[in-house]
């Protein structure tokens, strides 16, 4: 067959040929990846920098396409910063990179970024989506919960490059490890992140079963790239999993205690196991001191009452006590939700038609027959399951995992359905590359950082994202990787990026969730729950998005507008839409309005007395890293002059925009208003919210 | 060689990238027919989504009766037994224990032991030419009874609010499925390019399941409901910051666009062209939305009809806004009204809620009709479940009713609906359906049917399978259609 025709078919032909029967266990993804040989390249592969490129180039050669040139250094630098740490490079970092003519200058940057604590903050986001991590319970009475220690555990684990197999075992069964400490218990918060309905009158057993179902389904999606959910009610129609096998997996998760309390039906509380987080010596001392003070006050009140002293003194002392009790409550140690195993395992039955009200045949914990076997001596509990998942014989986990990392860096997976590797999933665009990466991940002892380093140092990654009309036609989706990927940043990185550009970003890490300003009246769910949104004070307003409070019934609005999920269920791929609400958010959300103002002032104060072009160039570089072209600079210059003119003609506008705020030294208020216009424009550029 | 076209990664999950790029690739190797098939992963007729505007109107599977839907959700669940279901036997046996066989194996949210029956305290009357029974709490709705098709045998699978609300809106009682409004806008787009296709108006607290009730789940987020608010910005971040007038904003957007064009010419990514279009749309929305939300321009007789007062957040205002939205071509409008969960004092609380809602709902139907919009607008009134024939609390202490999932009432009016019809009959106590039980899958299938959509063909590929609003169920309720 003629090459281009073949190529076209490769695009169109579905993964399972018509000849494949449903549930075929011979499906490619259920056979362990075999390590392929590197393809031989006709022309010696001068372009290729590492093995990734050999596979990519072989495929491009087949298609008669040439790779794109390497991206400009500035664009490449920005790309790798946003991809690895989620923040733009500083001017110093840009200049240093441009001045570094060593052949491994780029690799050096990559290594620095991989070692930066911001790496964990950026890579936690996709994992927390998968873990459906949130700071509230979901459903009616979407009450607040403490699970942030788990979020911090994820960030720390990513920064420490905890091997992915350990990372898995600790989250599924850290509590069952022989030497489990606090950290391992906190890690099990992964599966405590399920929603819970504490609405009055809820059937507790149903609620518990729903959480277990979610744990099974999420485990299937995250570690097996498999949609187990279908098998809750009947044997899977397409993939080789029976309903019985579904409940055998269910049995692994069925041995944790109830997570709600209350037995008469009327009142429910979210309870369930949690651990108390250690306090610092200072915090403990403060708590002890307050307790002492409380005792003293109580004693004094007793004495006053005995003396039947005049009311005033007694009342004021009582008032003091009340105040003190409030402060004492604030020093209560924080906690984090964890998994614990019941001593007596719950029996598990197949649920007929998926309903817990109609239990059928009893089953024991076991793993699906279509996949690698569970060793005979493995414990039939979560720990056994976790070790089974990370068994190198598992055909799915390494592929599924490395495919998601690929997706984060290239905008789409080698298997485009990040959530599904089943028989109905599209075939990988580069099957051998996928298998090579999967086997390499195991060889590398599951190091995420090494895997990511391999991807970003490839020539494939470094390609320019400029696309010619011809390539757009030949390879519209860039499945063949004939150019660099270009796609919009996710919600958190858009905000982090704006805060970094404006110089407002606070780099403090960890701790309880923060609340940046949001419009009033966004939180108002039914039920007995605190709906008051108290915006954080001070630097907490400018912390990274990964620390922003996640209320499931109404997540942070600007994140919602940029496709953040509500975290009620596992999500391994966010959609990327392009909507007018996104434009309105960047133009008018007070957070971005403030960022524009801070950005303008930053530029003006860092370029005191400098000519216009120098100032505009700095602003442009802060926003998109590269220098503006002559036409871009001219365009901005004209806009700035026009806006200064306008401001002069319209003092009312200047007053309304600035209030009593002063302009930085050497700048008029009119100029500042014009600069805020420029800053707004730069923060709204497609390029600013895109990594390309 | 047997080949099947794989639409998984070509369906709207990648609408922003794939469709756009594929669309551009038309005529460059992929034949026109293949292309149409690719773009048509959702089974709608061969009309590719306009990548620049995924909300562009799309033709339905077949000629539609309805162009838009106004979907009213009474959050908390009103008592059908005090509004639509006149049960003399229930009144007669008021205070007696419910027959044991009726509650055998039943689970309740709150009722325990052997509960007693509670007859209504309200008078029922036959209304309209059709003689539809309605209680005295609905005088205005009674006046338009001939427009209404009443389902008496609605039932659901959940008896707690949040799961049941999800079930009513998404056909699934846990999180993670798209809402009916998202499915509809995904299928049909919207007629007004300056407004979202799916608009939500909430009176009182947000229902328990939160924003997920109008979420798009795995459908692209452009199809999620956008909440319009009566207080503050009608759409979050719609108004310009202090000191920025409309003309200032226009210049900023023009500057953004000019620079984006430079980028587009340089890197060639069509996504930039989409971004430019979205900024223009945002600018249009900044004038179209406030204009829409300003009901003070309505004549006095309209305010008289609905009982509306400009500037307030009220259910009545939302009914009037619903009319203004469909008038402007918005595809799906959803009204939520909270406060119907009457576990206690149902006879004291229900009249208050009806007083606030009966008149505006009837006004909406009347108003749509006199403007000729009722022929193309479907109005649906429902709640997540109904309430028990048994009382909750003490008979002497202002009793209420518990949640009831086995039978309750829903009504439809407008485009394609046979007014004056009653679907289904229930037993003497209004406890169980006797004839023609109606599931939410059936209601959803009927809503889609009236919009010209075959509910079995409106699908979306996710996690390796085709999802649809009606899952594996859904029977169109022909008997209530014209």
Describe the 3D structure.
The complex is a heterodimer of chains A (692) and B (482). With 692 residues, chain A is mainly alpha-helical. Chain A is 48% helix and 3% strand. Chain A contains 28 helices and eight strands. In chain A, α23 (580-588) crosses α24 (590-606) and α24 (590-606) crosses α25. The longest helix of chain A is centred in the middle third of the chain and has 27 residues, at 281-307. Mean pLDDT of chain A is 92; it is low at 1-22. With 482 residues, chain B is an alpha/beta fold. Chain B has helices at 15-24, 32-39, 88-92, 100-103, 139-143, 161-170, 180-188, 246-267, 270-293, 300-306, 315-327, 346-370, 440-450; strands spanning 68-74, 124-127, 132-135, 148-155, 198-203, 226-228, 332-337, 377-382, 386-392, 400-404, 408-414, 422-423, 425-426, 433-435, 438-439, 459-462, 465-468. In chain B, the strands form five sheets. In chain B, strands 1, 4, 5, 6, 7, 8, 11, 12 and 15 form a nine-stranded mixed beta sheet that branches. A two-stranded antiparallel ribbon of chain B has the order 2-3. At the A-B interface, α1, α11, α20, β7 and α22 of A face α1, α6, α8 and α9 of B.
């Amino acid at each position: 067959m003629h090459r281009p025709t073949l190529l076209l078919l490769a695009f169109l032909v579905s993964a399972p040929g018509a000849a494949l029967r449903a549930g075929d266990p011979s499906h490619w993804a259920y056979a362990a990846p075999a390590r392929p040989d590197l393809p031989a390249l006709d022309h010696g592969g001068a372009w290729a920098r590492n093995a990734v490129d050999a596979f990519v180039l072989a495929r491009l050669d087949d298609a008669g396409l040439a790779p794109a040139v390497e991206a400009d250094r500035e664009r490449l630098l920005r790309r790798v910063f946003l991809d690895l740490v989620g923040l733009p490079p500083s001017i110093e970092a840009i200049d240093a990179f441009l001045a570094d003519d060593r052949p491994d200058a780029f690799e050096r940057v990559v290594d620095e970024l991989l070692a930066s604590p911001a790496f964990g903050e950026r890579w936690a986001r996709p994992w927390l989506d998968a873990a459906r991590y949130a700071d509230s319970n979901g459903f009616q009475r979407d009450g607040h919960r403490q699970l942030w220690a788990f979020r911090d555990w994820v960030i720390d684990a990513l920064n420490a490059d905890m091997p992915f197999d350990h990372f898995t075992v600790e989250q599924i069964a850290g509590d069952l490890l022989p030497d489990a400490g606090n950290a391992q218990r906190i890690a099990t918060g992964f599966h405590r992140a399920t929603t819970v309905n504490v609405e009055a009158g809820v059937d507790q057993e149903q609620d518990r079963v729903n959480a277990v179902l979610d744990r099974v389904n999420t485990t299937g999606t995250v570690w097996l790239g498999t949609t187990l959910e279908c098998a809750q009610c009947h044997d899977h129609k397409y993939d080789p999993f029976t309903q019985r096998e579904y409940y055998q997996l269910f049995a692994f998760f069925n041995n944790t205690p109830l997570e709600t309390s209350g037995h008469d039906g009327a009142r429910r509380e979210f309870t369930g196991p949690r651990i108390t987080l250690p306090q610092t010596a200072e915090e403990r001392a403060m708590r002890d001191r307050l307790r002492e003070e409380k005792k003293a006050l109580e004693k004094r009140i007793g004495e006053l009452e005995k003396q039947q002293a005049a009311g005033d003194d007694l009342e004021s002392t009582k008032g003091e006590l009340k105040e003190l009790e409030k402060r004492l409550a604030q020093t209560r140690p924080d906690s984090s939700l964890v998994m614990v195993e019941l001593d007596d395992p719950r029996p598990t039955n197949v649920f007929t038609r998926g309903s817990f009200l109609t239990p059928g045949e009893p089953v024991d914990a076991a793993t699906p027959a279509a996949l690698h076997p569970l060793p005979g001596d493995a414990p039939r509990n979560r720990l056994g399951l976790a070790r089974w998942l990370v068994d190198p014989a598992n055909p799915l986990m390494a592929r599924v995992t490395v495919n998601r990392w690929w997706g984060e860096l290239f905008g789409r997976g080698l298997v485009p359905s990040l959530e599904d590797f089943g028989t109905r999933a599209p075939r990988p665009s580069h099957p051998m590359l996928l298998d090579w990466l999967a086997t390499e991940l195991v060889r590398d002892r599951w190091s995420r950082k090494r895997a990511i380093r391999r991807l970003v140092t490839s020539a494939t990654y470094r390609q320019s994202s400029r696309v010619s009309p011809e390539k757009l036609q030949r390879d519209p989706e860039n499945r063949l990787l004939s150019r660099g990927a270009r796609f919009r940043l996710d919600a958190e990185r858009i905000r982090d990026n704006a805060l970094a550009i404006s110089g407002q970003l606070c780099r403090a890490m960890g701790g309880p969730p923060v609340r940046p300003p949001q419009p009033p009246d966004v939180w108002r769910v039914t039920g007995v729950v605190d709906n008051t949104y108290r915006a954080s004070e001070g630097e907490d307003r400018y912390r990274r998005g990964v620390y922003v409070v996640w209320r499931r019934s109404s997540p942070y609005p600007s994140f919602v507008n940029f496709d953040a999920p509500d975290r009620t269920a596992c999500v391994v791929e966010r959609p990327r839409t392009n909507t007018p609400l996104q434009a309105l958010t960047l133009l008018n959300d007070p957070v971005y309005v403030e960022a524009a103002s801070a950005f303008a002032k930053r530029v003006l104060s860092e370029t005191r007395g400098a000519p216009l072009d120098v100032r505009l160039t700095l602003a442009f570089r802060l926003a998109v890293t590269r220098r503006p072209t002559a036409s871009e600079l001219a365009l901005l210059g004209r806009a700035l002059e026009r806006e200064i003119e306008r401001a002069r003609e319209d003092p009312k506008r200047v007053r309304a925009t600035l209030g009593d705020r002063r302009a930085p030294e050497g700048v008029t208020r009119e100029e500042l208003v014009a600069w805020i216009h420029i800053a707004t424009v730069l923060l709204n550029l497609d390029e600013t919210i895109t990594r390309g | 060689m047997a080949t099947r076209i794989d639409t998984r990664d070509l369906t709207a999950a990648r609408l922003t990238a794939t469709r756009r790029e594929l669309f551009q690739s038309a005529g460059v190797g992929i034949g026109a027919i293949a292309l149409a098939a690719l773009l048509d992963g959702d089974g709608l007729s061969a009309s590719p989504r306009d990548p620049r505007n995924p909300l562009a109107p799309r033709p339905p599977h077949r000629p539609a009766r309805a162009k838009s839907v106004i979907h009213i959700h009474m959050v908390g669940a009103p008592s059908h037994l005090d509004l639509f279901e006149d049960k003399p036997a229930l009144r007669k046996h008021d205070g007696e224990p419910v027959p044991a066989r009726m509650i055998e194996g039943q689970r309740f949210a709150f009722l325990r032991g052997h509960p007693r029956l509670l007859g209504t305290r309200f008078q029922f009357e036959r209304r309209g030419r059709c003689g539809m029974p309605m209680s005295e709490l609905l005088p205005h709705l009674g006046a338009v009874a001939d427009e209404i098709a009443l389902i008496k045998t609605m039932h659901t699978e959940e008896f707690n609010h949040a799961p049941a609300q999800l079930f009513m809106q998404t056909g699934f009682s846990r999180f993670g499925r798209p809402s009916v409004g998202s499915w509809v806008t995904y299928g049909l787009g919207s007629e007004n390019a300056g407004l979202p296709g799916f608009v939500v108006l909430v009176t009182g607290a947000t229902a328990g399941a939160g924003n997920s009730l109008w979420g798009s789940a795995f459908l692209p987020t452009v199809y999620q409901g956008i909440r319009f608010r009566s207080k503050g910005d009608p759409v979050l971040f719609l108004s310009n910051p202090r000191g920025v007038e409309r003309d200032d904003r226009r210049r900023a957007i023009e500057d953004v666009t000019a620079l984006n064009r430079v980028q587009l010419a340089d890197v060639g990514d069509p996504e930039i062209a989409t971004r430019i279009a979205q900024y223009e749309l945002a600018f249009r929305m900044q004038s179209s939305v406030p204009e829409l939300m300003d009901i003070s321009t309505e004549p006095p007789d309209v305010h008289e009809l609905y009982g509306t007062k400009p500037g307030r957040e009220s259910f009545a205002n939302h009914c009037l806004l619903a009319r203004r939205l469909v008038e402007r071509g918005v595809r799906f409008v959803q009204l939520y009204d909270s406060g119907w969960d009457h576990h206690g004092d149902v006879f004291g609380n229900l009249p208050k809620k009806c007083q606030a809602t009966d008149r505006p709902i009837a006004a909406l139907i009347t108003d749509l009709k006199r403007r000729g919009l009722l022929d193309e607008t479907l109005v649906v009134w429902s709640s997540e479940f109904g309430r028990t024939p048994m009382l909750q609390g003490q008979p002497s202490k202002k009793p209420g009713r518990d949640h009831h999932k086995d039978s309750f009432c829903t009504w439809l009016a407008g485009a394609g609906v046979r007014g004056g019809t009653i679907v289904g009959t229930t037993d003497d106590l209004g406890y169980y359906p006797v004839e023609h039980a109606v599931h939410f899958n059936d209601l959803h299938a009927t809503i889609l049917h009236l919009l010209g959509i075959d509910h079995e063909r409106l699908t979306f590929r996710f996690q390796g399978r085709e999802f649809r609003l009606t899952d594996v169920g859904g029977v169109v309720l022909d008997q209530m259609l014209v």
